[in-house]
Amino acid sequence: MTIILIGSGLPNFKSVNMQLYYATINALNPEAYQYYLHQLPDTEHSKVLKYRRPQDAYLSVLGKALLMRGLADNGYDDTLRDTYKVTEFGRPYMLNGPKFNISHSGIVAVCAISETPVGVDIENVTRMDIDVFEDHFIPEEWNLIQKATNPTAAFYTLWCKKEAVIKADGKGLSNSLTDVITLTDQTTLNETIYHTRLHFIYPDYIMATASTCGHEVIKLIQVDTI
């Protein structure tokens, strides 16, 4: 059974298996944005500067700022310039640090931190033509979406779970979304079992986490100012 703890304060991995930091873009003022931007490795700094929309740049930096907050809370080195790395599949990781994953959508950024492989995906639920994504679901999943009272919400729910598992696996586009079957809260990808959980932290947002731990205790940590 998963226990969801909601609150703030200093968390630690002795009592929880995953910490889920989240914040809106309003948590990062212009001065803080510049500070955290300059804490990033050169490659990440350059990526941020390539964003055309300031909002996307802010969200990217906010996600890294949440990571730094989580590292500091748990007694890790929170400087990223020499410890933040990226695998050949494009998955970020920390040298001598915990597992983590970052996602952002709309005006919200989230960062999941764990001792075991973890993935997180958040989506701002908006009206869209979901039919163009049918090929990313197996027939049983698509049938579930079509028969749902709110097909759009059902689509985002399964999509977030798929993305979270793909991100936890860490092999990126070498996997297909149809390989991740989301009819239950457990799925297998590349011979590894992943457990998914849904989290509803803000109206009109759906978030999912994926973990290799089947009985994880998750602490949600809202950050108002960073």
Helix/strand layout:
Layout: E1 3-6, E2 18-24, H1 30-37, H2 42-49, H3 54-73, E3 84-86, E4 92-94, E5 99-105, E6 108-114, E7 118-124, H4 139-147, H5 151-169, E8 186-189, E9 192-199, E10 205-211, E11 217-222
Parallel strand pairs: 1-11, 2-11
Antiparallel strand pairs: 2-6, 3-4, 5-6, 7-10, 8-9, 9-10
Helix pairs in contact: 4-5
Family: Belongs to the P-Pant transferase superfamily. Gsp/Sfp/HetI/AcpT family.
Pfam family, one: ACPS
Domain 4'-phosphopantetheinyl transferase: 117-196
Question: What labels describe this entry?
Answer:
226 residues, Ribosomal Protein L22, Chain A, 4-stranded antiparallel beta sheet, 28% helix, transferase, P-Pant_transferase_sf, 4'-phosphopantetheinyl transferase domain-containing protein, magnesium ion binding
Model description:
This protein is globular. It starts with a strand and ends with a strand. The chain has helices at 30-37, 42-49, 54-73, 139-147, 151-169; strands at 3-6, 18-24, 84-86, 92-94, 99-105, 108-114, 118-124, 186-189, 192-199, 205-211, 217-222. Helix content is 28%, strand content 28%. With 226 residues, it is an alpha+beta fold. The chain has one domain (3-222): Ribosomal Protein L22, Chain A (Alpha-Beta Complex), CATH 3.90.470.20. The strands form three sheets. It has a five-stranded mixed β-sheet, covered by helices on one side.
